[in-house]
Design a protein that fits this description.
Elements (H helix, E strand, L loop, with lengths): L1 E5 L2 E5 L5 H10 L5 H26 L5 E5 L9 H15 L3 E4 L5 H11 L4 E6 L16 E4 L2 H10 L3 E4 L4 H15 L8 E4 L1 H16 L13 E3 L2 H14 L7
Helix pairs in contact: 3-4, 3-8
């Protein structure tokens, strides 16, 4: 609630935010005493540590894997679902396991394809307000559920031999952008990033070329950090070609 002037009189303006969200915003501006700060921050530190420990322990011997990113909102009758499932199957046949975000949509398709092909099917799930649950195609011993996105993203990067990026929303773009940034700034070694769906990604790629490159926000060479394909065969080939071209073998 806040007051504003209307015809010379103060009137109350009702917030359009949900009550829970408004409470969270107000809480952020509330002064805390030292005991509250110490108690809250200490708990967060130990929770973050425990998530890293669980992630490292479960993933340490996972073997070479490729992560498939994409929208949780895509249904099984969507062509992109079928493409993701097919990509996962082919990756398994090439000797890779498959990692996803563990939820529905493209994530489910990736785990389904890996499961169907008899390969490793890993799910790095995340607690969300709408209670995202791990899909049924994840190997029971390879499901990890996180509270913190940043811990989860570290695990994605650390244990993936490459990223297959299917159509998706803010979360997918966030994961793609972080991977590109880490490679561009040489904070991690280079690995293949493959965007699937030329029509879907065309607008963003065009903007990157016409704006980011033209305005010198990135180098033209940064466009080589990812490839753009349409078919499952092209996606898997891009992963294999990368390691052949650079005479590299998977981390494991």
């Amino acid at each position: 609630m806040c007051a504003k002037q209307k015809n010379g009189k103060k009137v109350k303006e009702v917030s359009t935010l949900p009550l829970e969200e408004e409470h969270r915003i107000r809480k952020a501006f509330k002064d805390k005493d030292w005991a509250e700060i110490k108690s809250s921050d200490s708990w967060v530190i130990f929770k973050v540590m425990s998530e890293f420990v669980e992630g490292f322990e479960k993933m340490a011997k996972i073997g070479p894997c490729v992560t498939i990113f994409g929208s949780a909102r895509i249904k099984p009758n969507n062509p992109y679902y079928k493409i993701a499932e097919n990509i996962a199957e082919q990756l398994v046949h090439q000797g890779y396991g498959v990692i996803t975000g563990g939820g529905p949509g493209i994530m489910e398709a990736g785990n389904k394809g890996a499961h169907k092909a008899g390969g490793k099917s890993v799910g790095l799930n995340i607690y969300l307000p709408h209670e995202q649950k791990g899909n049924v195609y994840i190997d029971p011993d390879k499901l990890i559920t996180f509270d913190y996105f940043f811990v989860r993203k570290v695990i994605f990067v650390k244990y993936s031999q490459g990223f297959i990026v299917m159509p998706g929303g803010f979360g997918t773009i966030d994961e793609l952008s972080e991977a590109l940034t880490l490679i561009q700034t040489k904070k991690i070694g280079r690995f293949p990033i493959v965007l699937v769906g030329k029509k879907f990604w065309a607008g963003m790629i065009d903007w990157i070329k016409k704006v980011l490159v033209t305005e010198k926000m990135i180098s033209k060479e940064d466009l080589d950090l990812f490839s753009l394909v349409d078919t499952p065969e092209e996606a898997v080939k891009a992963i294999d070609d990368f390691y052949t071209k650079y005479l590299l073998s998977p981390n494991f």
